[in-house]
Design a protein that fits this description.
Layout: H1 3-8, H2 10-20, H3 26-32, H4 36-47, H5 51-64
Helix pairs in contact: 3-4, 4-5
Length: about 60
């Protein structure tokens, strides 16, 4: 799976994202709309972590899909 497929399946993956990062709101998930950079930024903001850590979490999540 590549990130273009994530964007295309975003509606189906919303629950998975919410399960992984429970601090993200429905509005956050709507705003992200499958965009990887937006996802990383919202995780960084919600959890108060460095961008590199948020990026690592997204990469790990993506690898498990």
């Amino acid at each position: 799976m590549n990130w273009d497929q994530i964007e295309g399946k975003w509606k189906q993956l919303r629950g998975n994202v919410k399960e992984q990062w429970g601090k993200l709101t429905e509005d956050d998930i709507d705003f992200i709309d499958g965009n990887r950079d937006q996802l990383v930024g919202k995780i960084q903001e919600a959890y108060g972590i460095e961008r590199e850590e948020a990026d690592r979490q997204v990469s790990d999540w993506f690898d498990r899909l």
